[in-house]
C-alpha cells in the first residue's frame, strides 16, 4: 500500500515538474534508436533499461533513467528513494530530490541503512549528476563509471 501511495505521489507531481521546472530540451531520440547504439554504450544501456522495464522516453526526464543505468539502481520505490540519496551525496540539489527523500523516507524506516549507504556511495563518486548525457550516448558505460568512480 505504501509503495502505491508513493508511486501515485510521483505520478501526480511528474507532469508539473516536467512542465514548470525542467528547463532542458527533450532529447531527439527514441528507445528503438537507442537499441541500435553500440553494445556497451550509454545509449544502448539506456535503450535496454527502457525496454526491459517496459518504459518509454519521458521528455525532459531522460537523465533520470541514465542515472539508473550508470548506478545500476533498480526501479522499486525503495530503489528510487535510494537513488535520490545517492544523488544528494553526489551534490545534486533539486526540488524533486528533496520531495522524494522527505516524503519517502518516513515510509521505510527499516531501509535507513540502505539510504545512508547510497548517500555514501554518491559522496565517493566524482560529481556527475549535472553532465549533458545526451552528448555521451556513444561513450561506453564502463568508461563513464570508471572516470566518475560510480
As an assembly, this protein is single chain
Anisotropy-based shape: globular
Work out the strand percent. under 5%
User: Over all CA atoms, what is the radius of gyration?
Assistant: 15 Å
Number of self-contained structural domains: 1
**Whole-number mean pLDDT:** 91
Organism: Flavobacterium calami
Protein name: Coenzyme Q (Ubiquinone) biosynthesis protein Coq4
Give the key terms.
mainly alpha, Coenzyme Q (Ubiquinone) biosynthesis protein Coq4, globular, 0% strand, 8 helices, 150 residues, 59% helix, single chain
Description:
With 150 residues, the chain is mostly helical. The chain has one domain (2-7, 32-147). The chain is built from eight helices and no strands. The longest helix is centred in the N-terminal third of the chain and has 20 residues, at 2-21. It is globular and about 40 Å long. This is Coenzyme Q (Ubiquinone) biosynthesis protein Coq4.
Layout of helices and strands, plus pairs?
Elements: H1 2-21, H2 31-34, H3 42-52, H4 62-71, H5 77-89, H6 95-104, H7 112-124, H8 141-147
Helix pairs in contact: 3-4, 5-6, 5-7
Summarize the structure.
The protein has 150 residues and is an all-alpha fold. The protein contains 8 helices and no strands. It has one domain (2-7, 32-147).
Amino acid at each position: 500500500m505504501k509503495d502505491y501511495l508513493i508511486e501515485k505521489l510521483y505520478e501526480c507531481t511528474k507532469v508539473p515538474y516536467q512542465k514548470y521546472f525542467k528547463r532542458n530540451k527533450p532529447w531527439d531520440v527514441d528507445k528503438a534508436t537507442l537499441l541500435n547504439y553500440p553494445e556497451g554504450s550509454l545509449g544502448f544501456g539506456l535503450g535496454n533499461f527502457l525496454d526491459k522495464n517496459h518504459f518509454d522516453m519521458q521528455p525532459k526526464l531522460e537523465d533520470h533513467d541514465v542515472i539508473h543505468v550508470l548506478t545500476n539502481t533498480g526501479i522499486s520505490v525503495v530503489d528510487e528513494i535510494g537513488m535520490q540519496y545517492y544523488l544528494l551525496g553526489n551534490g545534486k540539489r533539486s526540488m524533486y530530490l528533496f520531495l522524494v527523500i522527505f516524503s519517502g523516507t518516513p515510509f521505510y524506516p527499516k531501509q535507513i541503512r540502505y539510504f545512508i549507504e547510497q548517500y555514501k556511495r554518491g559522496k565517493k563518486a566524482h560529481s556527475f549528476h549535472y553532465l549533458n548525457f545526451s552528448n555521451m550516448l556513444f561513450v561506453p558505460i564502463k568508461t563513464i563509471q570508471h572516470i566518475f568512480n560510480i
